[in-house]
Structure formats: structure tokens, C-alpha cells
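Chapter review: from sequence to fold.
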Amino acid sequence: MVTDIRIRRELPKNPIVIEAFPSKGFVSTIAAKYMIDELNMEVAGYLKSDRIQSIAVIHDSKPMYPIRVYTKDNLVVVFSEVNVPFHHASEFSDVLSRWFVEIKPKQVILLAGIAGKSTDKEHEIFGITIDPKAKEKLKKLKIEGIEEGMLTGISSDLLLDCIENKIPTVSLMAETRYTPDPLGAASMLRILNELLDLKIDTKKLIEKGEEIEKMFEDISQQLKKGMDDTKKIDEYPSMYG
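The C-alpha cell string follows.
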């Protein structure tokens, strides 16, 4: 065994699959974890691999694998609490791509956080798809596309594999400034609500996000003030120089 996916309960037929591995600002993992909790999704399986360090995560006193598969109704979420080493990313994406072909998803939605796409809107969501129906939906939701750029990691491999295997796929990316970034995750969940009619209440996440963002802004202001004060001191000649 190197990397393997193990499903322990029946999955819905032709599900909508959401992939959420750690990304910039942990936007994808925060959004997926909140979704799993709010929808009371159940563990359906896990990825087991000797490519990542031996880790067991504990939730509600229960040991669990760090990369898990959740399901409810027609939804399946692949959720990871650990980063996959970059040089092993293709192995994980190959396992997931073969599994996608096997379960024949109606759609795959890939979640990620990105930096460096500054716009007038806070926590802007960007989208990539070549599926005509999904493209029309994104257009109606005023989701900006990315004309030029580069994607890396598991999501990029899955995007290309899904296109090759003719699986309808959407990649959603939230612009993020902070780590962690719950407000970026809330923006992503609002789009998922619209795309999938999930009706997830993001109020708690938004309140927590505003609190965290305010904390980061206060820290940034304090650091800036400290740097400015240091600069002013340096402008004066030393008495003993």
C-alpha cells in the first residue's frame, strides 16, 4: 500500500463531489469543515497513505484519519486536515481521479484560496470551468473568471484529469489576505449555497471571521506603528556616535 482510498459505506449515485485540501488562508478547509458540521454529514471513508507522516486527528474524543470522505444526500466531500507533500501531490490526485471515474460524479467542485488577485471587492471569488452549464451559472452569480495564470497542487491535477475524463468540473478560488481566513471561507460558502441550493447559514462563520480579521488588522497597525517609531528614532543622530 502506498496511497489508497477506502470507502466504508454506500455513496449516492452520480454525486456532486467537493474537494477541499488545505490551501491559501485555509479557505477551502474552513469552508468544507463548516459545511460538514452544518449539514451533519457522515464519514463514508478515508484516504490512507504512507506518503504522509503517521497522524491521527481527534474529534469528539474519536481518533480519525486526517483525509476523510463525507457524504449526505447527493453530496460527497473529500476533506483533508493535512498538507500533502508537493512531490506526492500527483499520486493523491491520481487515486482520486480514478475514483471519480468509478463513481461517475454529476459534478466535481474544487475549492482553493489564492493571493495576488486584488480587486475592489473583499474576498472575491474566482472561477474556472469549461462546462457550458456551469459557466452560465458562474456568470449569473457574477463570478469573475481567470483569463491567464497558473494553478498548482492536487486541485490543478484534478481539474485537468476531470476535463480529460469529461467530468463537469468547477474550480472556485477565494482571494485571501489572512491565515486563517473565515470570511474568505464564508464568501465561498455563499457561492456554494447558490450553486447547489444548500441553504447553509454562514452567520456564525462571518461573526468569527470579522473578529479574526479585526485582530489581524490591529496587529498589522501595531507592527506598522512600531516600524514607523523605529524609523523616526533612526533619523536622529546618536548622542554617543
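Two observations follow directly from the output. The chain has six helices and eleven strands. Helices lie at 27-38, 89-103, 132-140, 154-164, 182-196, 203-235.
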